[in-house]
């Protein structure tokens, strides 16, 4: 395995070097009317190279002016970045024409966009053609949420305000994901998250009842928005934990869980932003000497869990 690019390992401010990804189109109603006119919207996802933090912005159309406005909103909230990376258009084999048009806009900028980037001293780079592995920063967590966004929100025809609320809550969900233990102390049950780089602490959310089992027809307008966010959380949460397990499973030398490791407990129907963490206190081996069951100390007590129901967080290097 080769070394990571310098922009990925040198300490820097959040989003000073960022990757850009696109998703869409989504059909949006500007007024809360059943037969309101639908408009196309796109999502621009910025990924911090250093902290893996996520920032989501909405692009109203495929013009340079709209994309510049998107960059200005991003810079206004996260600070102006020095470098922007994006996938080469040829890696989007199955992308629709609208996304290809957005990629062409940034790959072959007109005078308006190129003049803005030059005046602001922003360097835009592309990964090599037909080499999506170079875009490893656009990890499964981001790709997965794009997939679930398209499947769940794509057919809902939300208003602009509802769509913006869903996108920002998804941004918070992505920034709440645990990356690695905060410390090696056995009493520390906290994990480092992208939110720590942005707000100095883990991300919290408003406690809301689970609406995923209810029919959309019995819910009020904003309850439907909450239900959409919960559906996306449930699907993305499972796929992210599955990715964590897979990452630790397929190694040349399989790494067993050991006492003191920080793990994520796999629980059903967890509320949004909630990641149950615990420290391994005892191991139970099978006849093959492999770990089959672990005892975990969590904030609410000690529990026994099958090894398949915990995800080991990678240690920082």
UniProtKB/TrEMBL annotation:
Q: Does the UniProt entry include the keyword Protein transport?
A: no
Per its UniProt entry, which superkingdom is the organism in? Eukaryota
Q: Does the keyword Transit peptide apply?
A: no
Pfam families linked to this entry: DUF5641 (PF18701), rve (PF00665)
Q: Which keywords annotate this record?
A: Membrane, Transmembrane, Transmembrane helix
Give the signal peptide range: none
GO BP terms: DNA integration
**Coiled-coil segments, which residues?**
none
Looking at the record, the residues that make up the Integrase catalytic domain are 10-202
| Membrane-spanning intervals of the chain | 37-54
Q: What GO molecular function terms would the record report?
A: nucleic acid binding
Please give the name of this protein: Integrase catalytic domain-containing protein
Task: Say which species the protein is native to.
Answer: Araneus ventricosus
